[in-house]
Amino acid sequence: MSSNISGASPRPAAGRRLKLEWLGVLPFAIFILLFLIMPTMKIVLGAFQTPEGSFTLENLAGLFTASILSAYWISIKISVASAALGCLIGFGVATAVVLGGLPQKIRAPLLTFSGVASQFAGVPLAFAFIATLGPVGLVTVFLKTQLGLDLRLLGFNILSFWGLTVTYLFFQIPLMILIITPALDGLKREWREAAEILGASGFQYWRMVAFPILLPSILGTFSLLFANAFGAVATAIALTGSSLNIVPILLFAQIRGDVLGNPHLGYALAFGMILVTCIANTLYIWMRTRSERWLK
To answer: What is the structure's pLDDT at 7?
Structure first.
């Protein structure tokens, strides 16, 4: 009889443990509900409502005006450019640290810096680039006075398309490093040894073995970087103000009522941004899943 009692006693304890574990997740669930799900639902519903609260499709139809389509197109181009350059540069840096000849003691500081820099945005980032590459920035003045190079005459302006793209690279490159490093770590040494035994050169190994395995991770990270740049609001507003017609700036002005005075059109703009970022994040998750099949 004692064995039956001892055998039955752990079940309630396990049940209580399970409830307490779920209780620990409750603050996170409340946070997601209040600051993600409910605002998203308000945006989605507001995109299909008039100021009086009735159903309408006029807000979505307003997205197809010339100025709004132009804003989406410029935002997409900036996102593609910053994502592509971020992937290219970040992949080169991560490869040099993980597989190259650089000392391994560089890896920990690099990943630590990448974790901080990937979250550095908004007004501080905009101020840093204006102070560095602005009309009277440190680098701008140095190049003009010491080397005779005028960035303005060369066509570079921090408040332009390429200025915002370069600014975005400050957090795009570190994010690429953080995501691609585990994928590079997953490349097995046996694969390279087998390729060398079969007579493959280093270039052939990368072209026929390593790069096809890493391609889903690279494409998935590109999608994530695209969504990251497309949804960046604070940095774009703080850096360019209203001088560049992109969706986040147009959305900010629309919600405030500075331009057209129709917040529900702003909801439609935000709804369009949600669709674009959802597509990009879905591609990232799908590519990431395909990559993990090879790297396990």
So the answer is: 52
- Tokens 């703080």 map to which residue? 238
pLDDT per residue as tens digits for the range 93-113 = 999 999 887 888 899 999 999
Domain CATH for 83: 1.10.3720.10
In a domain, 207, yes or no: yes
At which residue do the structure tokens 């700036």 appear?
A: 249
User: Quick check: is 18 in a domain?
Assistant: no
Confirm whether 17 is domain-assigned.
no
For residue 62, give the DSSP letter. G
With CA atoms as reference, report the closest residue to 295 among 214, 217, 186, 185: 186
| Host H or E run for residue 67 | helix 66-98
Higher pLDDT, 52 or 101: 52
C-alpha span between 220 and 280 (Å, rounded)? 8
Beta strands in the chain (DSSP E): none
pTM of this structure: 0.84
